[in-house]
């Protein structure tokens, strides 16, 4: 087994980010991630960037990118620098993929989703790649996807909220896709390339992405990038225990509800905002939040029901 040693560079100035996918409009769950990453960045006197993860063109909802940015503005978020759009960054992802190819870290794969879904399933319900094309695709098959060889890497990291996390990539994930058969780069690769190029030191996001973190750390190591610190927040779930998302029909945020939704997000994050603050204006709520933000109050659970206080 190879235990990957993580290198943080604590001399770099704090840079955080919020990275929504425009597959739908912002909902309460996305607001929680935006609020926590924003307050962490400001509390640490750092920068806060917004990156539009519009990589998956077929899943993009028309006009969602614009609507998301407008909503962030209406909620009083102020980001640093220009918004980066993943849809314009194919050249950077292609260059990273080439480096992985030079290092023999990736291989072409001809398997269909169906073939893989017949293989072992991980505890999280994902199919684990059985290694079919590792030594080259079967005769007569065309390989269009690219996968990273995970070998026997066990990745361990210290999450600022969830504590020590460990994942055996071979057993729990298998060789994973970095470029899909349809030619699109995979989220795992794009996020690693962008976090590096944007000099992100701290990733604050929902705990649903804990399952991706080990893959991202492996890619960082293969590309020679430093690993950011990670803080995985409790995810907002509905009454049925499902993560709020477009698929579970989470209500989109609205401008008129901005003060109360922002107040609720703070409450969800364990911040105990006083009741009178809820009736205030957005700027007043932010003033309260910036003066009173406490990371140690954020609940360490993986999920909390929307409307419940953390
Ligand atoms: N775009 C991802 C999402 O909306 C977030 C990625 C990340 O924060 O690393 O779920």
Tags for this model:
single chain; 310 residues; alpha/beta; Rossmann fold; 3-stranded mixed β-sheet; 3-stranded parallel β-sheet; 10 helices; elongated; binds glutamic acid
Give the helix/strand layout.
Layout: E1 2-4, E2 15-18, H1 28-43, E3 47-52, H2 64-74, E4 84-85, H3 90-102, E5 106-109, H4 113-117, E6 145-148, E7 153-159, E8 163-168, H5 169-172, E9 176-179, H6 187-197, E10 202-206, H7 210-223, E11 229-233, E12 235-237, H8 258-268, H9 275-278, H10 282-292, E13 303-305
The structure holds glutamic acid.
Short précis:
The model has no long low-confidence stretch (mean pLDDT 91). The chain has ten helices and 13 strands. Helix content is 32%, strand content 18%.
Task: Give the assembly state of these chains.
Answer: single chain
Top-tier CATH class of the domain at 12-90 and 200-205 and 227-305: Alpha Beta
CATH architecture of the domain at 12-90 and 200-205 and 227-305, by name, is: 3-Layer(aba) Sandwich
Question: Largest beta sheet, briefly?
Answer: 3 strands, mixed
N- to C-terminal distance? 38 Å
Shape: elongated
Q: Roughly what is the average pLDDT, rounded to an integer?
A: 91
Topology pattern, helix = H, strand = E:
EEHEHEHEHEEEHEHEHEEHHHE
Q: Structural class from helices and strands?
A: alpha/beta
How would you describe the overall organization of this protein?
The chain is of the alpha/beta class and 310 residues long. It has a domain at 12-90 and 200-205 and 227-305: HUPs (Rossmann fold), CATH 3.40.50. Helix content is 32%, strand content 18%. It is built from ten helices and 13 strands. The chain has a three-stranded mixed beta sheet. Helix 1 (28-43) packs across helix 8 and helix 6 crosses helix 7 (210-223). The chain starts with a strand and ends in a 5-residue tail after the last strand. The mean pLDDT is 91.
């Amino acid at each position: 087994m190879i235990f990957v040693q993580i290198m943080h560079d604590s001399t770099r100035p704090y840079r955080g980010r919020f990275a929504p996918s425009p597959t739908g409009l912002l909902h309460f769950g996305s607001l929680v991630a935006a609020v926590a990453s924003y307050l962490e960045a400001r509390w640490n006197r750092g920068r806060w960037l917004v990156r539009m993860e519009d990589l998956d063109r077929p899943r993009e909802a028309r006009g969602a990118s614009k609507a998301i940015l407008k909503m962030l503005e209406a909620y009083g978020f102020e980001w640093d620098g220009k918004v980066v759009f993943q849809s314009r960054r194919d050249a950077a992802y292609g260059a990273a993929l080439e480096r992985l190819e030079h290092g023999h870290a990736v291989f072409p794969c001809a398997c269909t989703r169906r073939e893989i879904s017949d293989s072992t399933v991980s505890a999280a319900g994902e199919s684990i790649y059985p290694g079919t094309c590792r030594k080259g695709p079967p005769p007569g098959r065309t390989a269009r996807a690219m996968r990273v060889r995970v070998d026997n890497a066990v990745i361990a990291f210290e999450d600022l909220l969830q504590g020590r996390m460990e994942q055996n990539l071979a057993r729990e994930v298998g060789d994973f896709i970095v470029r899909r058969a349809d030619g699109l780069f995979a989220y795992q690769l794009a996020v690693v390339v962008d976090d590096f190029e944007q000099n992100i030191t701290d990733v604050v996001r929902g705990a649903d992405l804990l399952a991706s973190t080990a893959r991202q750390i492996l890619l960082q190591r293969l590309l020679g990038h430093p690993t950011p610190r990670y803080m995985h927040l409790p995810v907002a779930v509905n009454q049925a225990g499902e993560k709020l998302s477009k698929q579970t029909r989470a209500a989109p945020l609205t401008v008129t509800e901005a003060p109360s939704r922002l107040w609720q997000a703070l409450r969800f994050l364990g911040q105990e905002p006083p009741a009178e603050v809820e009736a205030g204006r957005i700027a007043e709520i932010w003033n309260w939040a910036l003066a009173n933000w406490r990371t140690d109050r954020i609940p360490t659970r993986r999920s909390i029901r929307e409307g419940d206080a953390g």
